[in-house]
Amino acid sequence: MAANETRTRRLHRELQQLKTNALPGINVNEDISTSSLETWVINVDGASGTLYEEEQFQLQFKFPAKYPFDSPQVMFVGSNIPIHPHIYSNGHICLSILTDDWSPALSVQSVCLSVVSMLSSCKEKKLPPDNEFYVKTCSKNPKKTRWWYHDDTV
Amino acid sequence: MASNATEENASENENKSEPTPSSSQNENNEPNNPNFECNICLDTAKEAVVSMCGHLFCWPCLSRWLETRPNRSACPVCKAGISRDKVIPLYGRGSGDQTDPRDKTPPRPQGQRSEPENNGMFPGLDMGGGWHVSFGIGAFPFMFFANNVAGFGQAPAPGSPQAAQEQFLSKVFLWVALIFIFWLFIA
């Protein structure tokens, strides 16, 4: 009960901050993010001057009961999924802060910022080398994948 | 006179009390001062503790995070090392007389009191036994030296009662010194 209360209060605060201290290119999708605090969809714009300029993506956040002590489930959804060596074509993202390196001081906004930053540092649009195999075999929940974080360059 | 003064005070209080409700309303409208928000729950920190790296948390929030990852305890903000013993509780005024929520959560770590730096008159006292030894060796040669200088300065006539007295005294001091040194070796 107390845990859920922490989660609810914190999500309310985060939603408030996302609206009041909005960052350019990171907006809550009010249509899809219903009033329930279970699932949010954030519209993320590709940063200008990068390979993903003028593109818009949708990041889905699902918050576990133990949030913020447990990381949210984050993946790209919708029709446009960025082509990036760390993003699988089903929307799963290989990013350490989403599992091992999660910290409760991170927020929806900071995760979005990290994803945009990851996109921005990309030099060549290409799928991960094991994309086909992974997409066929993986779980629906990206957090169930045992990610191997090996490439810090992109 | 007295009644006048109280009236004045009362009117002043009224004047003062006017802005306070509006300011408290502002506080209600705006979120609390973000400088004092817990980095985990984003609320104003309750039972606040601060890490060595300077990051503020509610103790319930932080202790829960430390329990979540017991083998990798890092500051949620900067990933510096953090532990139960390395956070300092903050006691604001009036925070102590609220209900004690420590029944629910593990108790907040205690404040530590370290002794102030000792700049006293006897810095050597801290070293205990060493002090005696250094005193004994340092002082006695000085005493002999002083005797000699006195002898050169005003040599009393030999055979006079003054000279006899001084000789006696120097013998006494010599024996005292010898006994003291002997005692030092025994001890």
From TrEMBL, chain A:
One of its GO terms (biological process) is protein ubiquitination. Residues 6-154 form the UBC core domain. InterPro entries: Ub_conjugating_enzyme (IPR050113), UBC (IPR000608), UBQ-conjugating_enzyme/RWD (IPR016135). Its EC number is 2.3.2.23, 2.3.2.25. It catalyses: S-ubiquitinyl-[E1 ubiquitin-activating enzyme]-L-cysteine + [acceptor protein]-N-terminal-amino acid = [E1 ubiquitin-activating enzyme]-L-cysteine + N-terminal-ubiquitinyl-[acceptor protein]; S-ubiquitinyl-[E1 ubiquitin-activating enzyme]-L-cysteine + [E2 ubiquitin-conjugating enzyme]-L-cysteine = [E1 ubiquitin-activating enzyme]-L-cysteine + S-ubiquitinyl-[E2 ubiquitin-conjugating enzyme]-L-cysteine. It is an enzyme of class 2 (transferase). Pfam families: UQ_con. Signal peptide: none annotated. CDD domains: UBCc_UBE2W. Keywords: Transferase, Ubl conjugation pathway. One of its GO terms (molecular function) is ubiquitin conjugating enzyme activity. The keyword rRNA processing does not apply. PANTHER family: UBIQUITIN-CONJUGATING ENZYME E2. This is N-terminal E2 ubiquitin-conjugating enzyme. It comes from Paramuricea clavata.
From TrEMBL, chain B:
Its EC number is 2.3.2.27. Pfam families: zf-C3HC4. One of its GO terms (biological process) is protein ubiquitination. It is found in: Endomembrane system. It comes from the Eukaryota. One of its GO terms (molecular function) is ubiquitin protein ligase activity. Keywords: Ligase, Membrane, Metal-binding, Transferase, Transmembrane, Transmembrane helix, Ubl conjugation pathway, Zinc, Zinc-finger. Residues 18-32 have a biased composition (Low complexity). Gene3D superfamilies: Zinc/RING finger domain, C3HC4 (zinc finger) (3.30.40.10). The chain crosses the membrane at residues 168-186. SUPFAM superfamilies: RING/U-box (SSF57850). Pathway: Protein modification; protein ubiquitination. Residues 1-32, 89-121 are annotated as: Disordered. One of its GO terms (cellular component) is endoplasmic reticulum. It catalyses: S-ubiquitinyl-[E2 ubiquitin-conjugating enzyme]-L-cysteine + [acceptor protein]-L-lysine = [E2 ubiquitin-conjugating enzyme]-L-cysteine + N(6)-ubiquitinyl-[acceptor protein]-L-lysine. PANTHER family: E3 UBIQUITIN-PROTEIN LIGASE RNF5-RELATED. This is RING-type E3 ubiquitin transferase. It comes from Paramuricea clavata.
